[in-house]
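During the second half of the funding period, the structural biology subgroup turned its attention to how the target accommodates small molecules. The most pressing case was flavin-adenine dinucleotide, which had performed well in the primary screen but for which no bound structure existed. We therefore specified the complex as follows and requested a full 3D prediction, including the ligand pose.
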Amino acid sequence: MPTLGFDAGKQGSTPLARVFLSGIRASDLLATFGGMTETEPAIDLHEPTLPEVRMHVAMPNAPVEGKISATALCMRGKSASFTRHVEIDIEGTTLEGTFRAGQSFGVIPNGVDAHGKPHKVRLYSIASPSWGEDGFGRIIATTPKRLLAERAAQTPKDDALDHSLFVGVCSNWLCDQRVGSSIQLSGPNGKRFVLPTDPNAHDYLFLATGTGVAPFRGFLMELLEGPPARSPACATWTRCTSRIDLVMGVAYTNDLLYDGWIRELAKKHANFHYHTAVSRESRSDGSKGEYVHHFIDRQLSVSDGCMEGLRSPRTLIYICGLAGMQVGVFQTLVKHNITGFTKVGVELAGIPSSAWTTEQIKRRVRPTHRCMLEVY
Ligand SMILES: Cc1cc2nc3c(=O)[nH]c(=O)nc-3n(C[C@H](O)[C@H](O)[C@H](O)COP(=O)(O)OP(=O)(O)OC[C@H]3O[C@@H](n4cnc5c(N)ncnc54)[C@H](O)[C@@H]3O)c2cc1C
């Protein structure tokens, strides 16, 4: 139960709001929220208004049947990180027209697990705009990456000497499917990782690692490209003129996803800027490869860097991809005194952000309403 003791709708009527209005940083005040003690950020009038979305129209125990309508590799070059762009026809199912860009859906792979039970559902981000690939919400796309690894013990009961090939069930099943194959689907899932109702009211920083770029493909199509002719969405769509930055993090250049399309988009739209952070290759000046947060740090450390938008209250951050990628991003924001995107627990007060442990950041630094997080 929240015990913040203030209501943003009643500014000036509560102790916190009075302090805020009298010029003392409200972030210096402490409050208890949902069991976590936090410093409380100033009331933020730039919080986005998010649209109502539909959720759980089809449940995993009563899935609908879609059909694979397209499938192709979508890495920039030859890479063992096999990742596909997969399109699924949902025409005539209860899911038709229900999705918003940024949401995800469930896939229930055929077959049974080691205990003879049907496989469990796995979630995949929608890589399409809200009107789908076709303009009518009948075809949705996603970006599955084959999970392939050498087996490693996950629990003390597992055989520590077993290093045979581990093949993820659903990602490989989905990547194996041919055009025309049937696929069991549930969803939509997720309500916060969506664009605001008024896209022009904000600027955007999209941070992706690997398949985390999937929802950003949909967002970029929705903000910049617009619906195909004849789509009912044409009646209300206007091109977004806000500044949009995408930072795409991968291990090797060849792993970049949708790279050609994104580069073309950046050439066409002066308000869209595409940046890459490649971690396991040296940069052109001979310096070490970098992660997404290193890129942000480097840009914020120079006077005319491309991340200055982070100091604007208009900016929203969307982070999608590898679990844990937010840790370095949050630490970098705090390091550069960028406020508005994180709430820092009082337990970390007085400890320099450079000394925070990963565990502390995961537990004690939370995103605000201007920072959307989808990591897995
Ligand atoms: C909201 C959301 C959106 C997502 N969007 C996407 C997307 O767009 N694209 C995408 O590719 N994925 C996405 N995912 C991840 C996806 O749901 C699956 O988790 C992923 O595809 C792996 O599923 P799998 O069935 O292939 O692997 P599984 O068979 O489920 O195996 C994964 C599990 O196996 C275990 N494991 C992993 N490595 C090893 C190892 N070396 N040895 C032993 N055990 C191991 C771990 O416990 C791990 O959790 C998303 C997840 C979420 C929550």
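Two results from this model are relevant to the next phase. Confidence is low (pLDDT under 50) at residues 1-36. Helices lie at 15-21, 169-176, 214-225, 259-268, 292-300, 325-335, 358-364.
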